[in-house]
Amino acid sequence: MLFPLALFALGLGAVKHCAAEPSVPSSTVFSTYVVHERRAIEPTDWTISRRPNANKRLPLRIGLTQQNVENLESMLLAVSHPESPEYGKLWTPQQVVDAFAPSQATVTKVVGWLKDFGFSQDDIKISANKGWIQVNAQLSEVEDLLKTEYHVYQHKETGDEQLSCHEYSVPAEIKEHIDLIRPTVHFNHRPSPQSETKFKRAGGLGQPSSGVGPKQRPAQPVPPPVATVPPGLIDCDEMITPGCLRALYNVPTFNPAAADKNSYGIVEFTPQAFLGGDLDVFFSNFSPNLVGSRPNTVLIDGAVVQTTDQSFGMNGESDLDLEYAMILTNPQTVTLLQTGDLVQGAGFDNWLDAVDGSFCTFEGGDDPFQDGIYPDPAPGGFDGPESCGIVAPPFVVSTSYGQQEVTITAFSATRQCTEYGKLGLMGTTILYSSGDEGVAGRGGQCLDSQGLPTTNGIMFNPQFPASCPFVTAVGATQVNPGSTISDPEGACEQVIFSGGGFSNIFSIPDYQKSAVSTFLTDHTPPYTSAEFNTSGSRAYPDLAANGANYVVGVDGELQLVFGTSCASPVVGSFITMVNDARLAAGKGPVGFINPAIYSDTFKDAFNDITLGSNPGCNTIGFNATEGWDPVTGVGTPNVAKLIPLFLALP
After folding, report:
1. How crowded is residue 470: how many other Cβ atoms within 10 Å of its Cβ?
2. What are the contacts of 87-93 at 24+ separation with CB within 8 A?
3. C-alpha separations of 124 from 42, 60, 137 in Å
4. Which of 288, 439, 445, 489 can bridge 621 by disulfide, Cβ–Cβ 3.0-4.6 Å?
5. What is the CATH number of domain 215-505+541-588+600-647?
6. Does residue 317 have an active-site annotation?
7. What's the whole-number mean pLDDT along residues 552-573?
8. 608 is in an annotated binding site
9. Nearest CA among 589, 580, 261, 538 for reference residue 425
10. Catalytic one of 317, 341, 356, 531
11. pLDDT of residue 586
12. Annotated active-site residue in 321, 353, 386, 542
């Protein structure tokens, strides 16, 4: 998907933000400061407005380095690799908290730094899981503490304001004990969801627009009325329906045997919302018994399923995700994780808060300038408490949203990626669509020699969270024009191109080393390190499913849409079927599936895609070829083969 809503921040031009190095109180034993984080790229549409009041109170949150993060991959492999004797022995939430809590030495070291600087014990608060320290300080004190300078930025259109610095520093002796400090450089604050220009243009996470999200075929007539949509499979190269997907992926008749134990979650970001009438338009044609059915809606941080703004941009993603998830898993209940209020919108961390209370607010990972902080003092904002741990993590979560990897700092991306890994330990499969611009990023942008996005860059532009090694990234395929469901699919090359490539942040995980090495050796791409990261990094996507010509009920009519955002909820539906079989047999959910799908045991459960490519950056991108490739991953699932393979595991 071009990511329905991507959280994209673009270049503003170089601005001098850092003050002359302020003096540190003479009593401190910390003398040498080093830069800890620097903003990846400057934000677009924002200008420096003024210096803030030096006496302004700033709730500084210091994310402490967690223990055992370096062991997270091996911990996940132990419970999710099909050859592991520990397969399926999932962790409890308390085991996760205990395993990753920062060491007492780290807590002592950072608290000592703060006290030595002059803060009293009353100024310092430590979260229950020791993951975060909060210091309530004056802005001038924070600037001295971090050797930085803050400015107030103002959004050109809405007048929204953001407090931010360009970089900050910490003592060299402290650096290894701190992951990140907020609010500082993390400038992903979104203009108000009520911004009309934001809707029409490139929107941030939670703010849909015509430029992101599922795509419509341009300059094409609206598909035929509901009554004349072909009920069969002959036109699957022109219109994808649930029947086409069942035929393409050998999906057996689904009669849930453990629906009361199973769970499937779809994440959406306010103001993007489904319309009940759209679901019924779709259901009436493809599954009449579902007419009137709605998802189990969990409202997170003041979220609303708004119906005031109705358009493809406002309703397309939610309608698409829910229509296909609900039909394919019927009668399994699908849970909608609707996130964020109409004033602030939401970020990825908000839905993580809702399913994991230990990650919530000061007790966990929120960024007050990327994620909504509640109660929200803004006029009309949600004034209730933050939605911490209000719902158990669904066994499968599909999210069709994302951002360019370059727009998030490595520290912040790693912190969030770790949380996905923790959910995997507890038995949740996390799916993210891989992007709709091939090897490029939003709007076809690629990276220049400085690693910044630009329209004339030549370096491939990877996507996040798809590039996180602890999520399953889903690419897109198509039934090639003129072909039938019996013919091999190709990589999606209609309207969108399947996102794929190599991370610039994360190293390659063990589970995909062999597959990626084989691809690079046997099908060596005609590029150098000037085009993509050749140093051994996380590669994506992991698998794929059809993403072209989906028939979707949107705004009262059927339309054709395209995107990896189509593929992710479909794959989620298939994994939900797998979980049903395992739960009915008295086993647990499959959780993190990547080690299994890359293993030789599961090779025959995927249809290898060898046609097409994912162009971008003035290249043809990578080619889909034998075995894994950075276009369609290991291929598309054969569900009838996938279920018994997972069912045979402990």
Report:
1. 24
2. 87/649, 87/650, 88/587, 88/588, 88/649, 88/650, 90/425, 90/426, 90/427, 90/588, 90/589, 90/591, 91/425, 91/426, 92/426, 93/356, 93/358, 93/426
3. 31, 10, 9
4. 439
5. 3.40.50.200
6. yes
7. 96
8. yes
9. 589
10. 317
11. 98
12. 321
- 609 among the known binding-site residues? yes
Q: Compute the distance between CA of residue 37 and CA of residue 545 in angstroms, rounded to an integer.
A: 37
179 annotated as belonging to a binding site for a ligand: no
The Cα 235–Cα 16 span in angstroms is 58
In sign, the C-alpha dihedral spanning 527, 460, 35, 535 is negative
d(CA 275, CA 294): 10
| Residue among 435, 593, 622 at smallest CA distance from 516 | 622
Give the pLDDT confidence of 54-67 residue by residue, as tens digits.
Answer: 998 887 889 899 99
φ, ψ at 275 (rounded to 5°):
-115, 130
Pairing assessment for the beta strands 550-554 and 557-562 based on DSSP bridges = antiparallel
Q: pLDDT by residue (tens digit) across 605-622?
A: 999 999 999 999 999 999
Predicted confidence (pLDDT) per residue in 167-216, tens digit: 999 999 999 999 989 888 876 444 344 433 333 333 332 222 233 456 55
Give me the count of residues in the chain.
650
Is position 604 annotated in a ligand binding site? no
Q: Residue 282, SS3?
A: helix
The 3-class SS string of 317-328 reads HHHHHHHHHHHH
Helix, strand, coil content of the chain in percent (nearest 5): 30, 20, 50
Between strands 57-64 and 132-138, the pairing is antiparallel
Q: Where are the domains of the chain?
A: 215-505+541-588+600-647
The pair of three-digit structure tokens given for residue 306, joined into one six-digit string = 């708004």
- Taking each helix axis from N to C terminus, what angle separates 410-425 and 93-100, rounded to the nearest 10 degrees? 140
Q: Residue 59 corresponds to which amino acid?
A: P
For the segment 322-348, what is each residue's pLDDT rounded down to a tens digit? 999 999 999 999 999 999 888 777 778
Residue 419 host element (H or E)? helix 410-425
449 assigned to active site: no
